[in-house]
Specification:
Shape: flat
Number of strands: 4
Distance between the termini: 19 Å
Number of domains: 2
Number of helices: 10
């Protein structure tokens, strides 16, 4: 494995680069990406303001007209309802894509391309140590990613909340996309994507494979946190009668089933209400007396969000530490190899 080391004849630096110098160097080097990120935040932020303002008001008014309809020939603004629904979907997807964009850029442009072209090694000859180079590479983008994604998440949460109780088809808080886009988990995943892209960029030292690796790592992390999140906080159990078609309780369901007369939990055959005679016979044979639903109500939203966010940030910290260890191992191995060769 080739070591990532500066040239053998490294001139002695006359002074250490200051932090402002490093910041100016990073801004100048990645100015296009910075402009794209700022433009993305401004455009998407503007769309979210439009969604939570005029689009929500128009859709809410249309739903008032629809709810007041007494005949099939009455008029309501169906286009306003569809327009709100479409743009809510577009903006939600855009917010959810942010971690993947950050991971792809981190792996391909921030780290992988510079190692591939040798510009990183050149920077190490300009009185910037490899560790300081990586720290600067992660710190400034990390701040910009946290601020930008945090602002968009806050605007999305506001835009969603303006439609609650006013738009009949507004997404519930536990809808998969809405749950993520409304909370801090997107910010944490974006930072984890930054760290994952940097780690894979250091490991692969090539732009394209680092881009693919960063996207894959972020996707795996997102799938994993989505799977474990419902189990990070104690659930609430709601018991309902068999006259319902299914267990009741609005929220994130973890476990559902039937309760017998002895209190035992069994799997539900998904038959339906006992008002349907065949289902009544099925439940009688099972000795079922009620449904149960272990779920998370709306009051659990922020505990779940903050707990999962803390978990993802811990993963991001571990990825960052691993990136520094890889860099240190590879840059430290070159002098030893050269000495042994001599």
């Amino acid at each position: 494995m080739t070591a990532l080391a500066p040239p053998a004849t490294r001139p002695a630096p006359t002074r250490r680069s200051s932090t402002p110098d490093l910041v100016r160097w990073l801004v100048r080097l990645h100015r296009p990406a910075l402009l794209v990120w700022v433009g993305l935040v401004l455009v998407l932020g503007g769309l979210l303001l439009w969604l939570g303002g005029p689009l929500t008001d128009a859709s809410a008014q249309a739903w008032k007209q629809y709810d007041a309809c007494k005949t099939s020939s009455c008029h309501y603004d169906q286009d306003a309802i569809g327009r709100y629904k479409d743009w809510y979907t577009y903006t939600t997807v855009a917010v959810l894509v942010l971690p993947f964009l950050v991971a792809a850029w981190s792996g391909a442009a921030l780290i992988g391309r510079e190692l591939e072209r040798g510009t990183a090694q050149l920077a190490w000859t300009q009185s910037i140590s490899p560790a300081r180079w990586l720290a600067a590479k992660l710190a400034l983008p990390g701040v910009l990613v946290a601020v930008g994604s945090g602002l968009l998440v806050a605007l999305h949460h506001w835009a969603w909340s303006t439609g609650q109780g006013r738009i009949d088809t507004a997404k519930r808080w536990y809808d998969t996309g809405t749950y993520a886009a409304n909370g801090t988990i997107v910010v944490a995943l974006a930072l984890a994507g930054l760290a994952a892209g940097a780690l894979i960029g250091l490991a692969r030292r090539e732009a394209l494979s680092s881009l693919v690796g960063g996207l894959g790592a972020t996707g795996i992390l997102w799938a994993a946190i989505d799977r474990v999140t419902p189990h990070l906080w104690p659930t609430v159990t709601h018991v309902s009668g068999l006259s319902h078609e299914h267990p009741t309780g609005n929220g994130i369901s973890v476990t559902q089933g039937l309760l017998t007369s002895t209190g035992a939990r069994i799997h539900t055959p998904d038959c339906g209400s006992v008002t349907y005679l065949p289902c009544k016979d099925v439940y009688a044979k099972l000795d079922a007396v009620s449904y149960f639903n272990d779920y998370h109500p709306r009051s659990h939203y922020w505990p779940l969000q903050l707990t999962s966010t803390a978990l993802v940030l811990a993963v991001a910290a571990a990825l960052t530490l691993a990136a520094f260890q890889i860099l240190q191992r590879r840059t430290a191995s070159a002098p030893a190899r050269k000495e042994s060769a001599v």
